[in-house]
Amino acid sequence: MPSRPDRYDPLLSVVDYLRLVHTAGDVEAILQATIETACAATDSTRGLAGLCDGACVTSAGWYDIDDGWTACNLGWELGEGGPGRVCRSGKPFVCNELPPTAEGLTEATELLALTSFASVPIIDEAGTVLGFLEVGNAPESYSPDDVRCLTALAAHAALRLHAITGGERRDLVEREKREEMAKRLERLLAPSAPPQVHGVEIGALCRWNSGDDGIGGDFFDYFHLTEGQLGVGVGDVSGKGIEAVVWTVVARYALRAVVETQRWPAWPGDTLREMQNALRDKLDEDRFVTLVFAMLNVKTGDFSFATAGHPAPFVLRPSGVEQPLALTSPALGVQDMSEIDAYPTERVELKPGDAVLLFTDGIAEMRDPAGRFYEETRMVAALEELKGLAPQELVDRLLVDAQRFASGRPPATAEPFAGALPPFETRDDIALVCLRLSGD
User: Fold this and answer.
1) Which end of the chain is more exposed for a tag (fewer CB within 10 A), N or C?
2) Which pLDDT does position 338 carry in this prediction?
3) pLDDT per residue over 162-188, tens digit each?
4) Are residues 22 and 132 in the same domain?
5) Residues whose CB is less than 8 angstroms from the CB of residue 134 and which lie 6 or more positions away in sequence, other chains included
6) 253 and 401 in a common domain
7) What is the pTM of this model?
8) In this structure, is residue 104 part of a structural domain?
9) How high is the mean pLDDT of the chain?
10) What is the C-alpha end-to-end distance of the chain, expressed in Å?
11) Domain interval for residue 372
12) 198-228 in b/e burial notation, b at 16+ Cβ within 10 A?
């Protein structure tokens, strides 16, 4: 009789392999771990496993105990080959004397060069055949005990497959619900077409991140209540995901309510104070809103703006690009300021042909492969080349330039622009609004 360690060594090896089955994180890893366990348990030298979708059977590769895994796409109709027969019947299939030219078993004879094999179905608790498990070329004939062992291993695989695929389905459904909700909220956030204001050209874009974190909180809006006066608000709500988007909707419509209920034309500093009063009791403790609100008098060229924790706009003139030094003011919701005075308002005189660019910090915080930020200094260099373009083409080209920077490619400002923006590639949202005083 073998000593206790000699008897336990093979068992411990199989248990170690079986642990890999139950810790596998995806379907392919489950099948591979199950095959390696099956080969160890039955002294088989080769094996493969795959899935059945009810019409056909597939496998992504096969295993050899010496050479490891060989990736290849294999497929069988139900009833075809060993895997197809097992998945159709739901019963084991064993062949201990396989001739080199066994009819209908080409995967065994031509691909795996098997002289014997044992195949069992992978069946879940509901009796549905999920796939198959097949091993071959053991030194001895496959016995009923080998089939029982393989069937038990297939049951373990079925449990893990059910856990993974069930979780994946739940995650998929939840993700689809979140994506649909995000799309609905995006439609609420997306402003209508720019107003037709005589004497002003307008270009704008807002790109929301569609990654795992979900879209964030960038927004902008226009206000054109009387001829000759145009208001623009560009904001950013902290955080990501559905909650951030909900607060973005609140912030945008709060801004609209403030502007439309106070004296017009709105004074930017007063507007931000009223926004602070409107939001101070509503925002969560860790939530805040950065906002720039600006008014343009189309007749005089007077451009006034106020910022709440938000970058100041750029002024684009034929002589160069500048960024007014805005007085530092806290973001909305950072502290209780119910009795504050109006936010400081800056004023800039625009002449026909001059433009202003309002933006959120998502573009400045884009990084290249080395981790360097795009930054506002890089924006200035790009805007020097783009400042003569029509506003919409300007903001489009600026985004392309930032995306090329983030991917490590040369600047794109000098290249012909086809008008089709590349896919959005950033972890943050970006909003850009450009106004040019045409002087018409």
Assistant:
1) N
2) 52
3) 887 766 556 656 766 767 766 676 666
4) yes
5) 47, 48, 49, 82, 83, 86, 117, 118, 119, 120
6) yes
7) 0.61
8) yes
9) 84
10) 104
11) 190-437
12) ebbbbbbbbbbbeeeebbbbbbbbbbbeeee
